[in-house]
Specification:
Shape: globular
Largest sheet: 10 strands, mixed
Strand content: 15-25%
Structural class: alpha/beta
Number of helices: 16
Distance between the termini: 33 Å
Radius of gyration: 23 Å
CATH architecture of one domain: Alpha-Beta Barrel
CATH class of one domain: Alpha Beta
Bound molecules: iron/sulfur cluster
């Protein structure tokens, strides 16, 4: 027997104890120092260590890996597909960190022919899959009458076809769209709020200037009143992280956090394709979680507003078991696609609209760029050289393909996640009692 290739062992933050997790075998334990020593030296209750998969016969482990890999591929074929539809790249906001700001705006405009071609395409190519559509921009909910009519048409068509619609919006015109949304089959609306009034208005003003906070808050209230789910996203960096306790308090005071229709996410502001004007304010993934760990200790009410994942720590805490092994973290071309109003098809929102990233077209003609698609489809922890021998692989899943390409110049390469360090923090946070 030897230690499993997938053991992740380290010391828990602010504790004398250690943790061990093993995603392939679905085991996790907190180890007191003596037990940790025993495991390290392969002494003590070796039978129990073997039962939990911390000590293994390598040939047996390889068999289990194969079995779970095939299961993962099979399950993914049955997963729901998220189909993004970019209705325009223009936006009425001038956010200080917008990664799309450097994109050249196409000359085409959304029209009914493109929308019809989109529905025909997904009807043909995703007929057998469970799916939902997410409207994306730019800003999809612009208030020009012709555009609004087209948005209404998309929502009506989806509803007729029984396909749920979600949207990612800056939420400024939600008040003008609520009547259309009320009639649709709406899964959720993702709204970005970067803090309380002053901070948010500073980071996310209207183009040409002007506050946006109050209208967004009103839009969120309206959605919840109309029983439409809200996914509130705060894009965080060092500039606004200090405002998180105040935003959390605002959401609690408004009664949002008490609603089962309200959830939150923290989006790390990171360099995507365009250079950020102010690089120093960006967080690495680990730095962000380190600050969140401290903030949660100082302001526990943040936990009512948002519970950070700290890799699989939150899952482990809430479910009492490990998630299934993740052989591929990237959903692009597998359970995610992105279409835009110019008629192009992309793998996901990280590549949509980016020159050289199109994987085909659905309008005016339907065509697939097979080689490029296969390149995306084959990417997982077995195709990425660095991931094959990585003990973190079944939690990390190889990271984001688009980021990997940005950093390493090729898709089939690694985008490493600081899994061990995140678990040190997260197990420290969630299991401190
Ligand atoms: S490339 Fe990155 S952003 Fe796109 S689906 Fe994959 S993980 Fe997500
Ligand atoms: S991307 Fe990096 S951390 Fe993730 S599995 Fe591959 S080598 Fe390991």
């Amino acid at each position: 027997m030897i230690p499993s290739k997938y053991n992740i062992v380290s010391k828990i933050k602010d504790s004398e104890n250690y943790f061990i997790v093993n995603s392939l075998h679905g085991s996790a334990d907190i180890l007191e120092p003596e037990l940790f020593e025993q495991l390290q030296n392969q002494q003590g209750n070796l039978v129990e260590f073997a039962e939990k998969g911390y000590l293994v016969d390598p040939a047996e482990e390889q068999k289990l890996f194969r079995k779970k890999y095939l299961q993962f591929l099979e399950d993914r074929e049955k997963d729901e597909v998220q189909i993004f539809f970019v209705t325009n790249y223009s936006c009425n906001f001038d956010c200080s960190y917008c990664y799309q700001a450097g994109y050249e705006l196409p000359k085409q405009q959304l029209n009914r022919k493109v929308i019809d071609a989109f529905f025909t395409h997904i009807g043909q190519h995703f007929a057998a899959r469970r799916k939902y559509i997410t409207l994306f921009g730019g800003e999809p909910f612009l208030n020009a009458p012709a555009h609004k009519e087209l948005m209404q048409y998309i929502i009506e068509q989806s509803t007729l076809l029984g396909i749920e619609v979600a949207a990612v919006t800056n939420a400024y015109h939600l008040v003008d769209y609520i009547d259309i949304l009320k009639e649709g089959k709406i899964r959720e609306i993702q709204v970005t709020l970067d803090g309380t009034g002053e901070m948010h208005n500073h980071r996310r003003p209207l183009k040409g200037g002007g506050a946006t906070f109050d209208r967004i808050v009103k839009g969120i209230d309206l959605l919840l009143e109309n029983k439409i789910s809200v996914n509130l996203r705060m894009v965080v960096d060092r500039e606004n992280i200090g405002n998180l306790p105040d935003l959390a308090q605002l959401a609690i005071d408004k009664g949002w956090t008490a609603s089962p229709l309200f959830k939150t996410q923290l989006g790390r502001n990171y360099e995507l394709h365009e250079c950020q004007a102010n690089q120093q304010r960006l967080y690495t993934r680990l730095d962000l979680y380190q600050d969140l760990y401290l903030l949660l200790q100082q302001y526990p009410h943040i936990g009512e507003f948002h519970k950070p994942s700290f890799s699989v720590s939150k899952f482990l805490f809430e479910n009492g078991e490990m998630p299934e092994p993740l052989f591929d973290a990237c959903t692009g071309t597998k359970t995610e696609w992105a279409f835009d109003f110019t008629g192009n098809v992309y793998a996901c929102t990280a590549t949509v609209g980016k020159e050289g990233e199109s994987l085909g077209t659905f309008y005016p003609i339907d065509q697939r760029f097979n080689e490029a698609i296969e390149n995306w489809e084959e990417r997982d922890i077995l195709s990425i050289p660095k991931c094959r021998d990585c003990n973190l692989a079944l939690i990390c899943g190889g990271g984001c393909a688009s980021m990997a390409k940005n950093y390493n110049g090729e898709l089939n390469s690694h985008d490493c996640r600081p899994i061990t360090e995140l678990l040190e923090l997260g197990i420290g946070h969630y299991f401190k009692d």
